[in-house]
Amino acid sequence: MKIHSILVVDDDENDQFICEYTIRKFDPSIRVIKAFDGTEALDVLRRETPDAIILDINMPVMNGFEFLDRYAEEFEVHAPVVAMLTSSHLGKDRERAMQYAFVKSYFEKPLQADHLRVMAELLE
C-alpha cells in the first residue's frame, strides 16, 4: 500500500525540515502534516487519521511517551504505522515504545529513505 499522508511530530524545526525534505524526495505525492508536540498532534488526529505517524520522544509540553499513552486511551482506531524517530540510543526507550501494539518501528535520527521504505512495507 502506498503512503498517502504522514504526521511528523517533532519540536525541532530543523528535524521537521529534514523529515519533510526526505519524505518529498522519497515520494513527492505524500502529504506531510506537522505537529510540534504531542498535544498538537492529538488535535490533528481528532480531525484526521494519517497513514503513518513519525514521532519524536523528547519534546516539551507533551513528550512522545505521554503522547503514546493519550493516543492509546483516546483513540480506538490508530494510524496503521506509528514509528518513533529519535536521537535516543537508549534500549529502554526502544523497549518502552515497542510495548504499544500500534508502534511498528523505532528509528534513530535523521529520517532516511530506508525508514520510509520500511514504513511503506508495513502498510502492505
From TrEMBL:
UniProt cross-references to InterPro entries, sorted A to Z: Bact_response_regulator, CheY-like_superfamily, Sig_transdc_resp-reg_receiver
Which keywords has UniProt assigned to this entry? Answer: Phosphoprotein, Transcription, Transcription regulation
Residues bearing the modification 4-aspartylphosphate: 56
Return the Pfam families for the record.
Response_reg
Show the SMART domains listed in the entry: REC (SM00448)
Q: Where is the Response regulatory domain?
A: 5-124
Q: Name one GO biological process term.
A: phosphorelay signal transduction system
Protein name as it appears in the record:
CheY-like chemotaxis protein
Organism, scientific name: Shinella fusca
